[in-house]
Amino acid sequence: MENMIINHWAVLVCAIFNMVLGAIWYSPALFYSAWKRENNLTDEQLKKSNPAKIYGISFLIAFLMSYNLAFFLGDANTDWQWGLTAGFLAGFGWAAAIFTSIALFEQKSWKYILINGGYIIVYFSVIGFVLGIWR
């Protein structure tokens, strides 16, 4: 695959963006209260979590997802439009779809599904755009 183009800096930025988007998406200004309520979590429970473990593993997973999409978009003809489209399709058609299926079996609410599914779709769409434009 001699025409494969992967910008490793773009992949790193996309992984960092995952953390930034999550901080905004799940902040009190947006969906924190609803997300907490839909998960039946209290502030006390959340304070008992291990942030180093959660953020460390989450970053590694974001890095893996970013590289995975970068390989799918590695063709030399990829541009921002195809990146955005492919990112949206990966987020909506794969990631959010399987998340929704699992959440339905877990008897989660539609509010829960929309909050988390929306995050997934936005994340993949944006990283597809970034990987498509930053060649």
TrEMBL record:
Q: Which InterPro entries match?
A: DUF1761 (IPR013879)
Which Pfam families does the annotation name? Answer: DUF1761
Which keywords does this Swiss-Prot/TrEMBL entry list? Membrane, Transmembrane, Transmembrane helix
Regions crossing the membrane: 6-33, 54-74, 80-105, 112-134
**Superkingdom:** Bacteria
Q: What is this protein called?
A: DUF1761 domain-containing protein
**Organism in which the protein naturally occurs:** Maribacter arenosus
